[in-house]
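Open question from group meeting: does this chain pack into something compact, or does most of it stay loose? Before anyone orders reagents, we agreed to write out a predicted structure and look at it together. Recording both the input and the output here so the notebook holds the full record.
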Amino acid sequence: MENFINGKWTKPQSGNYGNVSNPVTGKVFDKVPHSNLDDVNAVMDAAHEAFKKWKKVPVAERASLQHKGAQLMRDHADELGNLLANELGRPLDACIREITRSADLTDYYAEEGLRLKGEIPLHNIEGERVMVIREPIGVVVSITSFNYPIALLTMKLGAALIAGCTIVSKPSDETPLSTMRLAELFSQAGYPPGVFNVITGRGRDIGDAMVTHKYTSKIAFTGGTSTGQRIGALAAQLGKRFTLELGGQSPVIVCADANLDIAVPAIVKHTFANSGQFCYRVSRIYVHQDIYDEYVARMTEETKKLTIGNQFSGCDMGPIISQKIYKTSEEQTADAKAKGATITTGGERLKGAEFEKGWFFPPTIIADANHSMEIMREETFGPVAAIMKFKTNEEAIALANDSDYGLAAYVFTGELGTGLRIAEELEAGSVWVNNIQRSYHDVPFGGVKQSGVGREKGRYGIESYTELKTIYYSY
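Structure tokens returned:
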């Protein structure tokens, strides 16, 4: 594939390409550009020119186009899902669900954009009015991680487009193809050239240039904490807006009166979805001492039921995307074991003909954990979870908050008041009590501490792509 710039496929001025491989087989099945600074200038120029007209398009027309784009996502969900399954290795059904769910979010943003309003304060001064209006912020650079390429993009794309911004997307090197095809579909929906562009390349080659470019008004980033910190620092120096959705090390507290028939399946499902490769997965589990042994036994049993294989086999889990990401799971498991933890299931790379060409790490449970272990302090981004016992709810809250991260947290308890009190005490952008659902489209999503800056989804997400302007009008 080529870069998608100004409504057409465009060969990179660098002349260089990189491979896209199937993480199950290791087989190369496509190539994408390794762009350079000339390519960055070309795509930013296109987005800047398109913005001049796009910002003046009535919101109702933008919403109509956005609904058409969302419908095309549904119409091509099987195609996009297969692309995503091949480049990511996630089971096909889950990939198709990502596409349809992202289409729902795109539709939601279209409708929510129609409800944005300004205001006129009632100062009651004769011959004068003051108006507060919202204007689109400008050209948005979207930089996203490999793990949910379409979901993470549409969290930014749908908000930016309905607000009147144009967007330049740089997807991950590992999973760029689904994003590139999505841009083509939006062009088919009727979006003007230059409104939605995609450029691929290595971050070290073009990342800084995209962030600091004179036409960049906002950077919307989802990815690793260290990279996000660098982007935030560069953007702040130049007065550019940014939203950062960064790493997570999400805790769950299982109180003594928790219903384990609900807690165990919910935690297992959320911990090991997408082979553990997402930022708000359960990483560390604090269980009251009175039910600790039972909980460990039941979670281990439930985890052993998960199946691992290739993305088209109907399994529960596929491989980890790359050796680099895989390495963390292996190292953190070894660290915990060396410090006295017990591995109740998993813990070693899977072997055999089916697994030899991919980075397959089994769903792994680490019992008898403590905060000296890396698994309790650092992000894993893999199918490993650790369990630690606690005596009091106050102790559990302190342990859960003893982290540099604060993206999500979870509580299971039989007493509603206890659940609400713990939720209020936990330092996280989102807290689930007595179940774990996907994050809803109409409420904000984002983190505190080192887990990010700003919020996505809901009207909050759209507002972050606008600037407030105050107009003083005398007559």
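Observations to bring back to the group:
The first strand starts at residue 3 and ends at 5.
The chain has two domains: 3-246+451-474, 250-440.
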